[in-house]
Amino acid sequence: MRTKTNLPNALYIHIPFCESLCDYCDFIKLQYFHSFAEKYLVALKKELDERVNNKEIRTIYIGGGTPTSLDNKQFETLLKMVEPYSEKIEEYTIEANPESLSLSKIKLLKKYGVNRVSIGVESTNDQILKSINRKHTFSDVKKVVNDLRDNGINNINLDLIIGLPNVSFNMLEEDIKNILSLKPNHVSCYSLTVHEHTVFYINKISEPDEEFAYQAYKVIDDLLEKHGYSHYEVSNWAIPGQESKHNLVYWNNQRYYGIGLGASGYIDNIRYKNSTSFKEYISFKNETEEEIVNLEDEKDYELMLKLRTKFGLNMVEYKNKFDVDLYKAHKQVIDDYVTQGYLINKNNYLIPTFKGMMILDKIYLDLQ
Fold it and tell me: How many domains does the chain have?
């Protein structure tokens, strides 16, 4: 039987609805309809009550989809549902699109203790936004950021997408300067991926190649580092001390609850993924896929996830946990990566450099 100290203290909740479907998006999402959302919230509460048996949650992240696509009443229903788990909260994040984060919803966020908001900006160029079927403008972003701060929510993340069609390096630089003008605590930049069944795939739009992605990330990194942001994870920069506590749970290979359609979680030695069928989920037939994580799997996850961040992998802890001296087992490989400037080996920590973060898959495979 699990003891309370072994229970996850991080909670992810998935809201799959969007006001409209963006041309590039392949997340588990549905067009918002009031009746669908009503049924979904009932099923969500049932799973939340049944699965989450720890009220001392430290981080909550409500993502999507677009949680703010819910109407005001449904939005408050969601926040009330989560309220019993937020009494000990340190970081409580919700994702939002600028066009659907109204002042009334911001006041609800404040009322229910949400203290961090992640805004899907994607581009600061209004023509690019229109071309990818986004419904907001950069002026909307500026207004929402001001409204959040006026209402006492100051921990703000802004998301960008790298490699959108017709975006040059100069335009990307302009994006970063526009983002910097809003003084967010945190910036996330994700390279475009093109999935089957999306408009981008149908229109034969390509993902950026490795060289373009590297140069794009370099442009971003140079500008953000110059303005005091730290590149603490492959796709994430933050003012030091403002890193996402919730996402660090994932990258530190810690346990977490995942609630909602298609959500993933990690409890004890089981990684699970919920059903992606909306019909099944709202009928309370949430068939989960489960992976039983053995010691060898855990070792791989530890290596793969902890090398994503500037905090790196503690090789002493790794040895104590898995009885493997990583440096001794891969001395030549590690030394070569250090010499070439991809890794830093310092005080028994193995830490990726910017260059190393760009080729993590290769490093990970070489250290297995």
Answer: 2
